[in-house]
Amino acid sequence: MRTRTLLLTALAPLAWGSTYAVTTEFLPAERPLLTATLRALPAGLVLLAVTRQIPRGAWWWKAAVLGALNIGVFFALLFVSAYRLPGGVAAVLGAVQPLIAAGLAIPLLGERIGPRKLLAGVTGVFGVALVVLKATARLDAIGLAAGLAGAAAMAAGTVLTKRWGRPEGVGPLTLTGWQLTAGGLLLLPVALLAEGAPPAMTATNLLGYLYLAAVNTALGYWLWFQGIGRLPAASVAFLGLLSPLSAAVIGWAALGQSLTALQIVGMAVALGSTALGSTAAPKRAKGEAGGPDLPLATQAERRQSTSATA
Fold first, then answer.
1. For the CA atoms of the chain, what is the radius of gyration?
2. pLDDT digits over 30-40, tens only?
3. What residues form the membrane-spanning segments (predicted)?
């Protein structure tokens, strides 16, 4: 069951790797925030209409926080980084996300990160760098800051999604709809202020946006949040290394981009790091009850129940 869940969750970053090709080949140029908004908001609204559930109680602000971290803030910073840095540098910055998630999982989830995961995180960054980084890459301070902040936002969103779990009776599809809607609503005014009204759309543009919203985002994030609910957060974060690898393969197969022997070696290193990091079971902190798949609230309730009946 764990292997099946890992494979299904891995489909999300593999799909996200197609974003660059779809954006460059199907969408209007110089509209990154519009693209981010149209990826998130329509998909979120459709999922809300399908599931017919809205947040209640504390989940109004929890859904807003998760939507901001996983969608709104992450998408915005991702595009700032992509526009100010070469794609390779931006991808390497994104590859540090598993290390950040592993670090956050220690205080927030009570996980102890062993040397196996640390080794996987470092070698994963190195492998991605071999695939996408060029010697002529230029650096930009704002782009670097945005790339690191975006990786931190997604890592924090992944860990908090695991920590808070889901309300009783709420499935992954509903939680995905809440977050996409919240993130899209956050992006909408920013996109309008920064880029103005949307341009006239061609049939090709509409097809590209439909793919990004339906497959790349709604389906992709549903698989991602479902995986977070069933697997350790740090393990899920390592699957994000598949995204730049997928982008490189799609660029070679569909866009005619070159793929050198060094890049193939980097892919092998990154894939090995992904397997190593995502299959390593985290150790619970000393005295921590419950398994890694349980939200902390559930574990706390179990401890209280056990102490009451002892």
1. 19
2. 888 999 999 99
3. 31-51, 63-83, 89-109, 118-135, 141-161, 173-194, 206-224, 236-255, 261-281
